[in-house]
Amino acid sequence: MKAKLSLIPVVLGIVLLNGCASRYTVRVDALSAPNTGSSTPQTYVLASDHPEVETADLFFKEVSTHINTLLRKNNLREAQAGEGPDLRVGVKAFLSEPMVETRSYSEPIYVESRGHFRTVRIPVVNSDGKFIRYAYREYWTPPRTHFAGYVDRDQQVTVYEKILVLSAKRLGANGQPGEEMWNVKVSLRSQSTDYRQALPYMLLAAKPYIGKRTKGEEEIVIKDDDPGLLQFLGGERDGR
């Protein structure tokens, strides 16, 4: 799975050009070791936990760039060359196989009435106000569309799960990973196969849960005009 384009034009197009904000549901499931706290190591190195993705792959490099932003905003620092990192953060980013999902929706029903002529009988009176006769006039009633209610329908759609798993393990003196300190899994399901488009939403949802734990899987709703999305686009360039 390869990726060559930048996230910046993809997501800026969504955030800035979409007049009506869409809503995305991101699922978050996080765990942390009981002793994770103020003594949590602060330096880390990223590694691939996906058997088919190498750290040299362009896709891994691009995803890692934005994961670094996420971790930096959680007071973690990427270890520099020659510096022994405290944590190995395993990255598993992938797209699921296609799944068929049934979605229910309500469809409005409109009924159109045809136009028609109607005849109106009008009494005619003389100058004294006395009834003389009836006059008949025709009036045209144009066609009208009436709202009649809703009907519930089901639709089958093909969806894909975009999944990101981060697993932080303490590195021993021998450089081998040991105890897992924290783990966070985020996923976003939609009809799109574009992982890079979904990534900023997943990172924004994961941000409060790095090194934390959830009470089971939680659902986070994010709108595509959320200003928080921009922090995962410009952070690497402006140093914030």
From TrEMBL:
What superkingdom heads the lineage? Bacteria
**Official protein name in the record:** Uncharacterized protein
Q: Which organism is it from?
A: Oceanipulchritudo coccoides
